[in-house]
Write a structure and sequence with these properties.
Largest sheet: 7 strands, antiparallel
Structural class: alpha+beta
Number of strands: 12
Shape: globular
Strand order of the largest sheet: 8-5-10-3-2-1-11
Helix content: 10-25%
Length: 205
């Protein structure tokens, strides 16, 4: 009876605020399990919330990144990113400005700014939250689209073997998928799918 009363009260509040047609999403609990995990480019990715379950409004995942690894410089066209460092240490660059992000710290990476990062610890465990920047929309998370396309189901809750040059995705294929999902890699066509760009502190992004 209490649950029915709560639902009726919620519907009344929504109606009073002009949101009577809004259908709330279902709550859920997502655990850190193997069936939610991918191996991608030497990393362990754990997916907690994305797609229809969250109304394509955000994406929540955990990245486990080995030392010296990180993505090429890129720009999110529709999403803000927030990283919270659970374990390890991250070095990030936003348009050439270096940011030190130790354990128990959060960095906000705004939509529309070129950025990249590398793990500065043997393993850096990153809680990642992406959310719409409000000026446009995409079918889902740009990061998750790439992880699902080029990753494989994780064999264990640990880092995979380091990727070999032969196993790396084709840069042009990555760029095409990224463009469809609101993500741009401004230098990939020239430099390829390289790692640890941030190791060059004088790089201007």
């Amino acid at each position: 009876m209490a649950n029915e009363t709560n639902h009726e009260e919620a519907e009344m509040i929504l109606s009073e605020q002009g949101l009577g047609s809004y259908q709330p999403l279902q709550p859920f609990v997502a655990r850190r399990t193997l069936d939610r995990s991918l191996w991608y480019e030497g990393q362990l990715i754990v997916m907690y919330g994305e797609g229809d379950a969250v109304g394509n409004s955000c994406c929540v995942f955990e990245g486990n990144c080995p030392e010296g690894m990180g993505p090429p410089p890129h720009i999110h066209l529709y999403e803000h990113e927030l990283f919270f460092i659970i374990e390890g240490h991250l070095k990030a660059w936003v348009e050439g400005v270096e940011y030190d992000v130790p354990k128990d710290s959060l960095i906000f990476l705004p939509c529309g700014r070129t950025h990249w990062f590398v793990s500065a610890a043997p393993v850096t465990r990153i809680f990642t939250f992406t959310v719409s920047a409000g000026h446009g929309s995409t079918p889902g998370s740009a990061d998750m689209a790439i992880f699902k396309k080029f990753g494989i189901p994780a064999g264990a809750m640990q880092l995979p073997p380091p990727p070999s040059p032969e196993s790396r995705p084709d840069p042009m294929e990555v760029m095409g998928l990224a463009a469809e999902n609101g993500l741009a890699f401004p230098r990939m066509a020239v430099e390829g799918w390289m790692r640890a760009f941030g190791a060059r502190p004088n790089d201007e992004g």
